[in-house]
């Protein structure tokens, strides 16, 4: 067996190591265009910021290690230029010498990754304008930062841009993020990004939403980014991160199938349209685990697993890739945002029925010091309660809850299963009723009809004259410090004795701070014969939609 | 509906609140023997230590709050003395006035909890000898500590004792823990407690295993605890925590069924042998979720859920309790120990077949600063790979992995499912191959036969003459700083070129530090025709069994 692997970072390196464990005899050649294999992609912003102090930490493994430990024929600075499927060989260019040569294969794995999209902006090629993809980009950006950068502009408000923003601020750089959409972190639903937007503002990052760069120019004082709004942003450093595109040229040129967004098409054994050629990682189209639809999800974890699975299949094991859930996480200063499964946006776009709930718990028992708040959004099927997706934003413990929900989605669990989950509880770690249980209670109550709820957007979308009677059941103090326009305040503890003040001839929408007192109020009013719903997630959820209200 | 609830802490308070949400009309009376309802049981050691500064933080709710918000008839300092099942009434004593009266019921919930076992030791009733169960105990212990305690003795090495040990040390008290078993934290397997034992030693706690108190005496200089070993431990404070026993007197006197260890018997709707009487919380016998056997698991999370479920059933919903997994966690200084499902001990005792693996990953990517080590043990069925139990000990991230595995056990997942889990990865939070994935790879490889393994205890239990050739595939530096007796060192990177040094006529047991290089060595040797196994979990697992080797 002679196996060639094109690309030596996450998926390619995993495939190579797995292949060797399965076969000591196979001839395994790993081609990598760059000088490094298997570097710590996700650590690059933190090396620029200084959090990761040593560059060598970013080298997860080295060509030498792969050679000695896994007996791999590692060829860095080697660009695979073409595939001849009929002759089963590739043409390789040694980038150092310029020499070209051919290499035959029995099986070929494409792990070519994805390349940053380069927007067609005049000035994008100026010195001082970068993308951040590999160690060489990192070195150049860090060198600039180490010299002297007062102002930086980040084009794009995705995961890496926000990680860079944090690290730039830590290096004392005045940082502006420009995002052409009206939200950052577009895989998330927009309201869930509100706490991150606030965190950026608190930490001094300027965020310009709904704007984009039209040109970048070099002036005597440095670069200037000209926005479509007319605003001019002077900068000594510009980094754009506006998405990636599968590196599919090799596949396309060889006539392999690719999807509409460019991802190399593979079956669930990760075989391309040519049975001797497999593809893995950011370069491929995958099946969305929740919807079953084809999609592209450039993430390191799935790339690693795909590498393993491709090798398994090549060496005679029949292993299937179950699809990608899109579990993702980003830290932005002291906030963490994480998600798994489908977003509300995606479900709406697919016209797929869903219900949702929001809860606003603390990561651990409130009586133990240091509890940090989070908001957790759950999306689920209206009929069965099957989990479709989850998003959480907050402080400590966000990663844990999204991991738990990622497993629940993998296992096909429902919101009713969340009620019963038995999770770690001691006051430093969780609560006797964990945020996961709380979300399960709220969602299950909704589906059982115990707990009729309305989304705050639905309330606000109703014209004022038709709108339900908005009943704020919080304390007068809470009400005074901010409430939904038009609401009337009757604290839940007084509700039973002040029922006469609640109109019988109108629908009632009750709300509190997070939904819990609103739930009790809803139960009281339901049993008193009212037509009542609880505003899901309460005033805190309203504030996600209307942060400056 | 007139519902009486006996006991107002976790299960009782949850049942009462749930009952009110289900019925505004029901008459609900909550009897609590003590002065407080629903206090933060699990926070008591941290209030003594000063971590929780304000006593009022421990009052999760108050009788007044339950009255105003939930319209509950809360009667504190009220002891329910007897149940007359025929007449459906209870006899209550008001502990303040001494007055006795009767109260009828339609349905009754027993949430009487569990009482600390009082060992029959002379001197157990001396002033200065305590248990820690409620706020009154806490106040007395804290008062002593605030005055001046130089030395404290904790009898029992369970969860609460170790939490107290930490808090005593933080208050400057010289602390000794005496445990009659040969391990602390008995729900865990013994080798998994090694890192906690080391942490106690590092933090200056004296731990005496396999010893017990025979008498406690009052001397002119304070208390002295006399151990069976003859050792005398002077102390100004003694706290015993040697387990709890269900508070079942009310149930037993009323002729309700109880299990062999005293837990009140309930069906899966939490009904006792009298269909009008339900029981929840630490007082009951529950079904072990993994084995299906009856057991007793005094934990706050399950108690809360049971309270909810009992109320649901009483108000006409048919809800079943699925059993208790025994997910538990304890923090001991900078170490966290957590578990879920069955332990190896329990599986052995039940003669249930199982396999196990150990992994020693870091909580997040090693290239990002602050990664903390953990050991994770997985127990699973040898045929199907179904997860049976998990234990982890280490620093940050232990709680997350056990929560993930708790959900996996709830969902009936297998070790193969762990391979595929898509968990949060950014370098501050996890790894592209999360500890959970790693454990899945190792366990699945074992079951698939790719990765034959042997438990380190099995190696050591073999007489030296019959023992496999022990092959240490770590670096010479690692080997020199400690290795399994009799091992021969050939680093994995040299193994292919030094095969001649590996005897053909013997079985080979390869090992490295954590199992990963040992796995590669095993693959190399297997394919070279050797009879070889990898020592599961490597030298680090050996050190769990032989910490001072």
Overview features:
homodimer, 549 residues, alpha/beta, FAD/NAD(P)-binding domain
How does this structure look, described?
Two copies of one chain form a homodimer. The first copy, chain A, folds into four domains: 2-114 and 245-314, FAD/NAD(P)-binding domain (3-Layer(bba) Sandwich), CATH 3.50.50.60; 129-242, FAD/NAD(P)-binding domain (3-Layer(bba) Sandwich), CATH 3.50.50.60; 334-448, FAD/NAD(P)-binding domain (3-Layer(bba) Sandwich), CATH 3.50.50; 453-545, Rhodanese-like domain (Oxidized Rhodanese, domain 1, 3-Layer(aba) Sandwich). The mean pLDDT of chain A is 96. With 549 residues, chain A is of the alpha/beta class. Helices cover 28% and strands 24% of the residues of chain A. In chain A, helix 1 runs parallel beside helix 8 (300-314). At the A-B interface, helix 1, helix 3, helix 8, strand 21 and strand 22 of A face helix 1, helix 3, helix 8, strand 21 and strand 22 of B.
Topology:
The structure is a homodimer of 549-residue chains.
Chain A: E1 2-6, H1 10-22, E2 27-31, H2 44-49, H3 63-70, E3 73-75, E4 78-84, E5 89-94, E6 100-104, E7 107-110, E8 114-116, E9 129-130, H4 135-148, E10 151-155, H5 159-170, E11 174-179, H6 194-202, E12 206-209, E13 213-219, E14 222-227, E15 232-235, E16 237-240, E17 244-246, H7 249-253, E18 277-279, E19 286-287, E20 294-295, H8 300-314, E21 328-332, E22 335-341, H9 344-349, E23 355-359, E24 374-380, E25 387-394, H10 398-410, H11 415-420, H12 435-448, E26 453-454, H13 456-461, E27 469-472, H14 476-480, E28 488-489, H15 492-495, E29 508-511, H16 516-527, E30 532-535, H17 538-545
Parallel strand pairs in A: 1-2, 1-7, 2-3, 7-18, 9-16, 10-11, 10-16, 11-12, 26-30, 27-28, 27-29, 29-30
Antiparallel strand pairs in A: 4-5, 5-6, 8-17, 13-14, 14-15, 19-20, 21-22, 22-25, 23-24, 24-25
């Amino acid at each position: 067996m002679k196996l060639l692997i094109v690309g030596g970072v996450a998926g390619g390196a995993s495939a190579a190591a797995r292949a060797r464990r399965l076969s000591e005899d196979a001839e395994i050649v790993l081609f990598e265009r760059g000088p490094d294999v298997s570097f710590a992609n996700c650590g690059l912003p933190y090396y620029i910021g200084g959090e990761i102090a040593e560059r060598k930490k970013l080298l997860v493994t080295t060509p030498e290690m792969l050679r000695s430990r896994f007996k791999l024929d590692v060829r860095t600075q080697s660009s695979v230029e073409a595939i001849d499927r009929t002759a089963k060989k590739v043409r390789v260019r040694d980038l150092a010498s310029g020499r070209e040569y051919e290499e035959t294969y029995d099986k070929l794995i494409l792990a070519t990754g994805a390349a940053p999209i380069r927007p067609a902006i005049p000035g994008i090629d100026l010195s001082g304008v970068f993308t951040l993809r590999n160690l060489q980009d990192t070195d150049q950006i860090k060198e600039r930062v180490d010299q002297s950068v007062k102002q930086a502009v980040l084009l794009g408000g995705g995961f890496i841009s926000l990680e860079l923003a944090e690290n730039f601020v830590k290096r004392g750089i005045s940082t502006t993020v420009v995002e052409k959409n009206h939200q950052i972190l577009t895989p998330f639903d927009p309201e869930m990004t509100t706490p991150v937007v606030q965190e950026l503002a608190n930490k001094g990052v300027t965020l310009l939403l709904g704007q984009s760069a039209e040109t970048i120019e070099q002036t005597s004082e440095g670069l200037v980014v000209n926005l479509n709004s007319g605003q001019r942003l002077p900068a000594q450093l510009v980094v754009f991160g506006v998405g990636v595109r599968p590196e599919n040229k090799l596949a396309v040129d060889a006539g392999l199938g690719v999807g509409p967004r460019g991802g190399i098409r593979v079956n669930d054994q990760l075989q391309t349209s040519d049975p001797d050629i497999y593809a893995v990682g950011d370069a491929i189209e995958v099946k969305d685990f929740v919807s079953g639809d084809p999609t592209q999800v450039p993430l390191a974890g799935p790339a690693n697993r795909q590498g393993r699975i491709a090798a398994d299949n090549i060496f005679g094991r029949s292993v299937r890739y179950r699809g990608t859930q899109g579990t993702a996480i980003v830290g932005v200063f002291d906030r963490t945002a994480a998600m798994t499964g489908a977003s509300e946006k995606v479900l709406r776009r697919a016209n797929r029925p869903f219900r949702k709930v929001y809860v606003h718990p603390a990561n651990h028992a409130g009586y133990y010091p240091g509890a940090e708040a989070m908001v957790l959004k759950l999306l689920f099927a209206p009929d069965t309660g099957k989990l479709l997706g989850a998003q959480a934003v907050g402080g400590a413990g966000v990663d844990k809850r999204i991991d738990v929900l990622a497993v629940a989605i993998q296992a096909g669990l429902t919101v009713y299963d969340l009620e019963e989950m038995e999770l770690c509880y001691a006051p430093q770690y969780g609560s006797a009723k964990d945020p996961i249980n709380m979300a399960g209670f709220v969602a299950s109550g909704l589906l059982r009809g115990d707990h009729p709820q309305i989304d705050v957007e639905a309330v606000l979308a109703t014209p004022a004259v038709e709108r339900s009677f908005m009943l704020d059941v919080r304390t007068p103090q809470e009400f005074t410090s901010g409430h939904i326009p038009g609401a009337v305040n009757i604290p839940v503890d007084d509700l039973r004795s002040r029922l006469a003040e609640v109109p019988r001839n109108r629908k009632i929408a009750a709300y509190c701070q997070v939904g819990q007192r609103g739930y009790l109020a809803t139960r009281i009013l339901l049993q008193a014969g009212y037509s009542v719903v609880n505003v899901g997630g309460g005033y805190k959820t309203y504030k996600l939609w209307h942060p400056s209200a």
